[in-house]
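Quick log. Single chain, no ligands specified.
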Amino acid sequence: MVKKILITGATGFIGRYCCKEILARGNDYLAIVRKESDLQKNSKAVLADLSNREELMKVIEEYRPDAVLHLAAIAAVTFGNISEIYNTNISVTENLLEAIYNTCDSGTRVVLVSTAGIYGNQKDLYYYENMPYDPVNHYSYSKMVMEYMSRQYADKLDIKIVRPFNIVGYGQNQNFFLPKLVRSFASRQESIKLGNIGSERDYVNVEYCVNVLVELLTRSKIEIDKLNICSGVATSGTNIIDMLKEISGYTPEIQISNNLVRKNEVWRLVGSNERMLEFLGKEKYSGNSIYDILDNMYHNYYNELDKKCN
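-> predicted structure:
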């Protein structure tokens, strides 16, 4: 049976990949966008304001989705407008849930995209879904509140919360650490200023993340309510730099800038993928290694820059 999926944040990095995967599996989607220009890029989009409940209810009533994927958010930890972080990540989410609750059938699946940042700094090496919240920045705080807030709609809606770790790939916003660094190598930047390069992260290629999301949206019955999307592999900024040197054959000057060092740094953010693998019916993680991800990103950026020069 073809599933009808309503998507917010469809024009973002993960959203664009999700739209392609949903169609590739023979399902349908409708993307809620906020700019007129986005309508021209996507024939399966509709213009609506996520803060306007009446507009949302009208869209939902007309489309009658089987499932909803909520990706729209301010996802940058360093985003400067704090009030906008909370308004977008909490108030807008509540508005959407309220509209779904009042319009959709009982049991409608809603996948809310949270963040691994809600774990903060823990004593354990691998972070499990049942660990306590310990966020250290406004972005993660807002996602923690979003998770709590969503519980009041769980009596009617089938809410699933995903906690992605570091989702990366070609096409990601250059403001994020990894694409910014890869592009710096591809452009042969002589000197690169960075913050903490000793902290460890868990990197997952975007295609693998999208596969998990679409499974959550389309599978008929799912017992779990929270799910990490992670590789379970720790990689430091220093490791990333060493791999890029090997891939590119280039060694820039690396400068550590105090202005780029985050206060309240999370020094190790690596997830347990046990629940995710059980959900997928896999014995081990099958996503691309961080080296392969970097290699793909580097050569895409290098070719992109080469075309511009020629």
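The mean pLDDT is 93.
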